[in-house]
Every structure is written in C-alpha cells, then in structure tokens.
Design brief:
heterodimer, A: mainly alpha, two-stranded antiparallel sheet, 2 strands, about 75% helix, about 0% strand, globular, B: about 170 residues, mainly alpha, extended
C-alpha cells in the first residue's frame, strides 16, 4: 500500500495550522502572558487564533479540490472545500464576537477549544471513512460540550453544558450503533466501498435498523423536532459565542456530513440514500421540527430561547434541503447553511455585546436599542430579517433555493413538494416572532436610565462584516452557488 | 468447544455489565467492569483477534480500570442510602427492553438472513492477525484517526481542567 505523504501533508495544511496555533496559544499563555489580566490574554489568544484561521482559509482555497487523499480516507471535493472555508469563516466570526467580554475565565483554553472544534468540523466535511467520521464528530462535539459549560460564574452555563453533554453522548451512542451495523453488513469502513457492497447485495432489513439509528443520532445533533429538548436550555445557558458556534458551524458541518452519508458525493453512487423508507422518516422529522420550532418560538420572552426554537424550525427546513439535495446537488443546502450560520451567529454576537453591558436576556431588555447603539440595532435588523427570509437579504435566497429544489422535480405531485409549501407557510409564522424582536429594538423607547452601549472595536468590525456578507450573498447569491 | 467458550464469555460480559450498573458501591462496580472487559477480550480471542484481546486486557483492564479504582478511592465516594433506581425508571426501562426484544424477535423470525459476502482482498491476512500488517495499517489507513484521537484526548483533558478547577479569587458577583 503506497501512500503519497507529501500530498497528504499538503491536504492537511489548514487543519495542522489550526492545531499548531492552538498549541502555540497554550504555550504563549503559560509563558509570556502569565501575569497579564484576563482581557489582554483573551485578546492575544483571539488574535493569534484569528490569524491562524484566516491563513488556514487561504490555504484551503489555494489547495482547492484535491480529490481523494490517503487511499480514499479523505475526499476533498468541491463541497468539502466549500465547507472548510465556510467553517473557517464562521469560526472567525465566533472569535470576533467573543472578544471584548471580560467574563471568560480561561481565555486561552477557550480559543484553543474553538480551534479544535473547527478542526473537527473541517474533518467531518471531508471524511470518507466511518471511523474518521465518528472521531471528527466527537472531536467537535466534545469541544462544544466544554464550550457550553465554559462560563463558571453562571449556573445556567453548567446546566447547558451538562444537558448538551448527556443528550450528545446518547446521540453518539445511537450513531455508533448504526455505524457498527453498517460495518457488519458491508465489511468495510470506506463510504465508497460501502455503497458498492450495498448496491451488490441489495436491501437487508438490518440496513433499515442502521438507518434508523443514524437518523436518531443526527436528529439529536441537529436538534430536529422529537429530539430537540436540549436545544433551548443549551442556547440559553451557554456563553453567547459558544451558542453561536453550536448554532452555526456545527450545523454546517453536521448537515454536510449527513448529506454525504445519504447521497454520497458526485463521483460515487448513492450511499444510504438508496435505502427505501428513509424519506418519509426525514419528512416527518422536518415537518415536526418546523411546526414545533415555529409555534414554540411564539411564546418565548427570552431572546436566546427564541433563537433556539427558531433554530429548530430552521433545522426542519434544512432537513427538507437534505431530501432535495439528492436530485439538485448540495448547492442550495450549502447556501442555506452558510447564510443561516452567518445570520444566527451575528444575532448571538449582538446579544453577547448587550449581555456584557449588564443586560439580561429578556426581549424587553432590547428596548430602545436604536438610540442606545444604532450600530447594534442596524446589524441586528439585518440578521433577524435574514433569518426571517425577507427579500434583499441572503436568508431569503437560501429559503428560495431550497424550496425551489424541493418543488422542482414533481411540483405538488410529491410529498416533498407539499412539505415545501408547509415550510413556506411556517416561514410566515416565523416572520411574526422575528418582527417582535425588531419591534423591541427599533420601535419601543428605552427604559428610563438606560445608557448608551459601548461596542468593543473587534466585535463591531466582526458584526459589520457579517451584516455586509448577509447583504452581499443576498444580492449576489452566485458568489456561493457558482462553486457547485 | 468454541461454542461453550463463546457462551461463557458472553454470559460473563453481560452479567458483569449489569453488575456495573446496579452496584451501589463504586469499587465493586469498577471491579465488575474489569471482569466485563476480560469477557470481551475472551470474545476477541475466539474471533482470532489475539492482538486486540491482549491490548484490551493491557490497556483497559490494566491501565484504565486501575485508574478508575485509584480515582474512586481518592475521592472516597460512598454509595449512600439512596436507591439506585426510582420506580419510574424501572418501569420505563422494562418497557424499553420489551420493545427492543419484540423488535429484535420479529426481525429475526420474519427475515431470512442472507449471508453477506464480506469482500476481502485475496491472499490478504485478516487485519490485526499479523503484527506487521497491523502496524502498516496504523501508518496508512488509520493514520489520521489515530491523530484525531490524540487531540480528542487533549480536548477532554483541557475540558476537565477548565470545568473542574476551583479559582482562588472568590466571585465578585456573589
């Protein structure tokens, strides 16, 4: 077995750069920065991390689609490269909004764990071997559990971390059981080899069991409807940048991986997508998520819980995109994931700045934001309208692309088409609670004694950049879609 | 003979695994885990995966469980007087078990299991049987997973330090 190690090292440049930066940050923090105060340590660590992430994105783009690496353990196709760059962009966003808050107690470790999670996400995007798939998923998940419980000054954060950990561990067990059944059925761990064996042997009842296990696992991880119970608590209790990371980059990498397991990549045949009977199950999950997410969000008075239920609703729409991407390719789904990630991470960024200024998380704490900080109010408006799917912004085009992909094969002649119609109706419900947030921020006068909000420079720059991207991708969607 | 051994090791594994869950005393639970791992190692040996069996005994039964015991004794946790299960938990687990058994029984009785041909390259020794072959796999196909596991453990360690370390400076918020 001959391996081209130089090719392997070149393909792994972005990942290894992030890991090296993470180790460098720990060393730096323990030597040079040892006696400095917390905010200086956070700023230095974030700066080093952000530089590494930006450089890694450049390397990922320069290397481009390299095809199969290490005898097919990795497959760097266009989708993998796009996901890598997307994950790195969202990581940069999360690092940017995290600065300026002095509440994080172990700043260097925080940045290191964010970087390691990013490595996990990037490997998830390109892994072609079930063992690596599972390990990459666990590397990312373990980092997210720690991030969710990172804020030790608030008991809610510990609750968020514990709940996320318990549910996540359960999901991992289901997923691993499904994977082991797949391995037992096909005798191989490689996804391409697996699809060959499955095509040759035909349907086997155990395949359906494996499929159910995998669906349950991914349902938990994506917070789809019957498995969504951890999401509101985790989103509410976790530190805002961690919640932003859970909602954005982890969704992006997770759904790309799920699509890959179902539909394979362009060069190989269908993977599990050939199993009969999974579409109705995913259909039900998607419909239930949209229904539960949108209706429960109407009743929330806490902005973070509201965003959590809206995330559940979006997970439903994304599952619809997963069904549709078998025919239309992963383009629309990827566009939806990226733009949704930017908008939701941006919204969490705005709330993070507000919380650092002493505001709690209630809807009414947003009152008078347009006077207290026009910049934050403007950015929040862009993010929330994009999440709601209002036309000039990228969220609209993401929804449009996914629904069009779901409707195009058979129109209303198929259940998928009807689900798309249901999703459109539910988007109208969503508009109501998104506008509730904006009403508080833009219309309601400030409470007596409310002072102007000071926005840290790095966070302001990040938020403006994210809002700009949301606008640009909305007006020129081909910037992302031409990759596919 | 292998059949007898298979049933023996399976019974050992399952029975001691149940022991891990129901035991109130943490030390007894850890010792049950040790026996369970020995049972799994026996199953591996029956499958001709001798290296895996040896590694399991060395790493898990030897190092990891010893570490468990060490920590349990260090923390000096007592089982307490609390019942291990509430009635609701017991009912829920019984229902779950019944569902699982029914599902599996239907699956086994209603379907003919076609033997799935496992494609192995001709003339190749099974993985793990030959040490050299095993080493070769470790540096080719499984190179990346091994590295990822390394960083996974690093993250776990960092997480434990961050989440469990007590800070000398008291909270100013309290």
């Amino acid at each position: 077995m001959n391996i081209d190690y130089s090719l392997f090292f070149r393909a792994m440049q972005p990942e290894s750069l992030l890991i090296e930066a993470a180790l460098a940050i720990i060393i730096l923090d323990l030597t040079v920065m040892r006696r400095k105060d917390l905010s200086a340590r956070l700023n230095v660590a974030s700066l080093v991390g952000a530089l590494a992430v930006a450089l890694a994105a450049v390397l990922a783009l320069r290397n481009g689609a390299m095809g199969e690496i290490l005898n097919g353990v990795l497959n760097l196709d266009t989708l993998a490269v796009a996901t890598r760059v997307g994950v790195l962009g969202l990581t940069l966003l999360v690092l940017g909004i995290g600065t300026g808050g002095a509440r994080i107690r172990n700043p260097a470790e925080y940045v290191v764990i964010v970087l390691c999670a990013a490595v996990g996400f990037m490997l998830m995007a390109s892994a072609q071997q079930l063992l690596l798939v599972f390990l990459a998923l666990e590397l990312a998940s373990l980092s997210l559990y720690v991030l969710a419980g990172f804020d030790k000054s608030r008991p809610e954060s510990a609750e968020a971390g514990l709940k996320y950990f318990l549910f996540g561990g359960m999901a991992a067990a289901f997923l691993l059981f499904g994977f082991s059944l797949l391995y037992g059925l096909t005798g191989t761990l490689d996804l391409p080899g697996m699809s060959v064996v499955m095509a040759a042997t035909g349907f086997h009842p155990m395949l359906a069991v494996a499929m159910v296990m995998i669906l349950v696992g991914f349902g938990y991880k994506a917070a789809a409807a019957p498995f969504h119970l951890w999401a509101p608590d985790a989103y509410q209790g976790a530190p805002a940048p961690a919640a932003a990371f859970i909602a954005s980059a982890s969704k992006l990498a997770g759904f790309v991986l799920f699509t890959r397991l179902l539909w394979g990549s362009a060069s190989q045949g269908q993977m599990l997508g050939a199993t009969p009977g999974w579409v109705p199950v995913v259909w039900l999950l998607a419909g239930a998520s949209m229904l539960v997410g949108n209706l429960a969000a109407l009743a929330q008075s806490n902005v973070r819980r509201l965003l959590a239920y809206s995330a559940i609703a979006h997970a439903g729409a994304l599952l619809l995109g997963v069904i549709a991407s078998g025919r239309s390719g992963p383009g629309p789904l990827f566009f939806y994931l990226t733009t949704y990630g930017i908008a939701t991470a941006g919204a969490f960024g705005v709330f993070h700045v507000l919380e650092n200024q002493g505001g709690a998380q209630k809807l009414k704490d947003l009152a008078g934001l347009h006077r207290r900080s026009p910049l934050l109010a403007g950015c929040l408006m862009v993010f929330i309208l994009s999440l709601a799917g209002v036309p000039p912004l990228s969220g609209f085009f993401g929804k449009f692309a996914v629904f069009a992909a779901a409707l195009s094969p058979a129109g209303l002649g198929s259940p998928t088409g009807w689900l798309a119609v249901f999703a459109i109706a539910m988007s109208a419900v969503g508009l109501y609670y998104y506008l509730l947030i904006l009403k508080e921020a833009l219309v309601r006068p400030a409470a007596a004694g409310a002072t102007a909000v000071k926005v840290p420079a790095a966070a302001a720059l990040t938020l403006v950049a994210a809002a700009g991207l949301t606008l640009i991708f909305g007006m020129f969607p081909s910037l992302l879609l031409r990759w596919f | 003979m292998p059949h007898v051994l298979f049933y023996f090791f399976s019974f050992l594994t399952v029975a001691t695994a149940v022991g891990v869950v129901v035991n109130k005393n943490a030390v007894n639970a850890a010792l049950c885990l040790l026996l369970s791992l020995v049972g799994v190692a026996g199953l591996f040996a029956l499958l001709d995966a001798y290296l895996l069996a040896a590694l399991l005994v060395l790493v898990y039964a030897g190092a990891v469980v010893a570490l468990f015991l060490f920590i349990v004794m260090l923390l000096d946790t007592q089982g307490g007087t609390r019942k291990p299960f509430k009635r609701l938990t017991a009912v829920a687990s019984t229902v779950g078990l019944a569902l699982l058994v029914t599902g599996l029984a239907t699956l086994v009785s209603r379907t003919q299991f076609a033997t799935v041909a496992v494609p192995t390259a001709a003339g190749q020794a099974p993985v793990g049987a030959v040490l050299k072959h095993y080493a070769e796999m470790l540096f080719t196909t499984y190179l990346l997973p091994v590295q990822v596991v390394g960083f996974l453990l690093l993250i776990a360690m960092l997480g434990v330090i961050v989440l469990s370390r007590k800070h000398a400076v008291p909270e100013e918020t309290k």
